[in-house]
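Changelog-adjacent note: as of this version, every example in the card shows the full chain rather than a window. The one below runs 105 residues end to end.
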Amino acid sequence: MRSTTLVLAAAAALVTVSESLLRADGLTEPVDAYCTLDWHNDCTSTIEGPCLVNEHEGHTYVDGFLYLNFSFLSHEEGVTYERSDHQGNDVFVRDGHYSLTVIPD
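Full-length structure tokens:
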């Protein structure tokens, strides 16, 4: 159990660091949503909870999701991540890392 907690903490720190980017002014107002995060590693647990979603010029930012923040830049779609619609929910997949599902409130 302790090793699973350490793996989750290390992965969360890596995601937070790798996802933190300077943002452009003029973001839309944050929209309340519910997020689920599935790791693509030996850890089988799912993290879920409320989150905030902002969009600006095709970029999507997910903030306030527990202790994590994510940036999905439009010019990186198809390169560093894939975005799809699954039953009205946005799904962002960074292959080999995680899948983030954003469910609008």
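Structural remarks: Strands lie at 31-39, 46-56, 59-65, 68-72, 82-86, 89-94, 98-104.
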